[in-house]
């Protein structure tokens, strides 16, 4: 009986040592990212396939430009992908948030699109043009209208400014420039003469800056770097393993190829 007990005790000891020698399975790191549906969430779907083993991507889509920053600042989500630096800087200053850029991913050319008026040449005096109403994107729209000779802005207005219609110094054609929530621009353009639309909302409406726009930003200027769409995180989390893994996935050859082959120049990778 004693021999049987000793044998069982030895067997239990051997099994316990074997179990201790095996490393516990690692938990999967989930990276939760807020994104605009087009093209950001679509690009993230491709990036998710490039993540190394042990990382998983959860994409939460938003149709506005406010909640994606608030949920990252609160810690509800880990990162966001929908905005450029001028908008982020303005949002932080106005809302007391502390979100930073960890990587630049792509650039979406801003475009002027036809509404009731089919071309810039046909634009009548007093025509109505709708533009985004948020600071940095409104500046961007006004700069594009200035690029096309429709208005002239006050001295010193550039991409780093938060310009509004009150910064228009010259409007020789008495154009009515109406500010509107960016998400409403594409669906409202048929009611006005022209619309200046953000790249992601244009894409969501089936529009392409390179195919459909009457005019787009001069890509040879500083617009591509200034308005590059970024991956944003709460300050202090830039070096989190999940964030660094996502940066590498987003800046992979597979993602670059997907952007080039899918969007026909309406989205331009800058990595």
Q: Biggest β-sheet: count, sense, barrel?
A: 6 strands, mixed
* N- to C-terminal distance: 73 Å
Number of domains: 2
Q: Report the radius of gyration as a whole number of Å.
A: 25 Å
The shape is globular
State the CATH superfamily name of the largest domain: Periplasmic binding protein-like II
The chain-level structural class is: alpha/beta
Order of helices and strands: HEHEHEHEEEHEEEHEHHEHEHHE
Number of helices: 11
Task: Provide the CATH top-level class of the largest domain.
Answer: Alpha Beta
Strand content: 15-25%
Please provide the count of β strands: 13
Structure explained in plain terms:
By secondary structure, this protein is of the alpha/beta class. The chain has two domains: 30-108 and 227-269, 3-Layer(aba) Sandwich (D-Maltodextrin-Binding Protein, domain 2); 111-220, Periplasmic binding protein-like II (D-Maltodextrin-Binding Protein, domain 2, 3-Layer(aba) Sandwich). Helices cover 38% and strands 23% of the residues. It has eleven helices and 13 strands. The chain has helices spanning 2-21, 37-48, 67-73, 85-95, 135-147, 185-188, 199-204, 209-212, 223-226, 241-250, 253-263; strands spanning 29-35, 55-61, 79-84, 99-107, 111-114, 128-132, 152-153, 168-170, 176-180, 194-197, 215-216, 229-234, 268-269. The strands form three sheets. A six-stranded mixed β-sheet has the order 2-1-3-12-4-13, sandwiched between helices. Strands 9-6-10-5-11 form a five-stranded mixed β-sheet. Strands 7-8 form a two-stranded antiparallel sheet. The protein is globular, with a radius of gyration of 25 Å. Residues 5-9, 11-15 and 17-24 have low confidence and may be disordered.
């Amino acid at each position: 009986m004693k021999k049987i007990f000793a044998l069982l005790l030895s067997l239990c000891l051997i099994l316990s040592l074997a179990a201790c020698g095996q490393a516990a399975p690692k938990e999967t790191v989930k990276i939760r990212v807020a994104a605009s549906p087009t093209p950001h969430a679509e690009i993230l779907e491709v990036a998710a396939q490039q993540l190394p083993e042990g990382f998983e991507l959860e994409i939460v889509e938003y149709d506005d430009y406010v909640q994606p920053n608030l949920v990252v600042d609160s810690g509800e989500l880990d990162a966001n992908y929908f905005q450029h630096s001028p908008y982020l800087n303005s949002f932080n200053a106005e809302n007391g948030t502390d979100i930073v850029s960890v990587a630049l991913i792509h650039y979406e050319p801003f475009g002027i699109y036809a509404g009731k008026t089919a071309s810039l040449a046909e634009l009548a005096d007093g025509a109505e043009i709708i533009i985004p109403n948020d600071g940095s994107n409104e500046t961007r729209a006004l700069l594009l209208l200035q690029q096309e000779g429709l208005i002239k802005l006050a001295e010193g207005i550039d991409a780093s400014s938060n310009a509004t219609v009150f910064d228009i110094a010259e409007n020789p054609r008495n154009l009515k420039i109406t500010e509107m929530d960016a998400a409403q621009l594409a669906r409202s353009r048929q009611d006005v003469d022209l619309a200046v639309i953000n790249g992601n909302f244009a894409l969501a409406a089936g529009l392409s800056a390179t195919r459909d726009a009457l005019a787009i930003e001069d890509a040879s200027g500083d617009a591509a770097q200034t308005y590059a769409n970024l991956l944003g995180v709460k300050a202090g989390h830039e070096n989190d393993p999940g964030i660094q893994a996502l940066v590498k996935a987003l800046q992979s050859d597979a993602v670059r190829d997907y952007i080039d082959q899918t969007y026909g120049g309406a989205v331009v990778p800058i990595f």
